[in-house]
Amino acid sequence: MRSRDDGAAEISVVLRPALEGQGLGRVLMGKLLNYCSDCGVQEFVGHTTLDNRRMIELARAFGFVDAPCAVPGMVGFRLELKPSTAVE
């Protein structure tokens, strides 16, 4: 995880293909969002390739909204966190 001075955090997670589709991404995302919220992070940002439908659907399921991304073929996401956010 990388935390920026402006209260935002960005992470990268890559799963081995053998682990995909088992719900691990959802568990990790919930734990990361709770941890960041508890640490006072105000915004969570990230990006993925346009063809990564699973990540796009997961981000939207957690309430992420589209954010600008200057890299062609990528989509950006952001989520404002509140200290009381409880995500599982």
Question: Would you give an account of this structure?
Answer:
The chain is an alpha+beta fold and 88 residues long. It has a single domain, classed as Aminopeptidase (3-Layer(aba) Sandwich). It has a five-stranded mixed β-sheet, covered by helices on one side.
Question: What would you say about this model in short?
Answer:
The protein has two helices and five strands; from the N terminus they run E-E-H-E-H-E-E.
Give me the CATH superfamily: Gcn5-related N-acetyltransferase (GNAT)
The secondary structure category is: alpha+beta
Give the number of helices.
2
As for the number of domains, it is: 1
Largest sheet: 5 strands, mixed
Indicate the proportion of strand residues. 25-35%
Question: Residue share in helices?
Answer: 25-40%
Low-confidence stretches: none
C-alpha geometry: globular
Write down the CATH class. Answer: Alpha Beta
Distance from first to last alpha carbon = 19 Å
Task: Using the 3D structure, state the CATH architecture.
Answer: 3-Layer(aba) Sandwich
Q: What order do the strands of the largest sheet run in, or round the barrel if closed?
A: 1-2-3-5-4
CATH topology: Aminopeptidase
Task: Give the averaged pLDDT, no decimals.
Answer: 83
Order of helices and strands: EEHEHEE
Cα Rg: 13 Å
Helix-strand layout with pairing:
Elements: E1 2-3, E2 8-10, H1 24-38, E3 43-49, H2 53-61, E4 65-67, E5 74-80
Parallel strand pairs: 2-3
Antiparallel strand pairs: 1-2, 3-5, 4-5
Key words describing this protein structure:
Aminopeptidase, 5-stranded mixed β-sheet, alpha+beta, globular
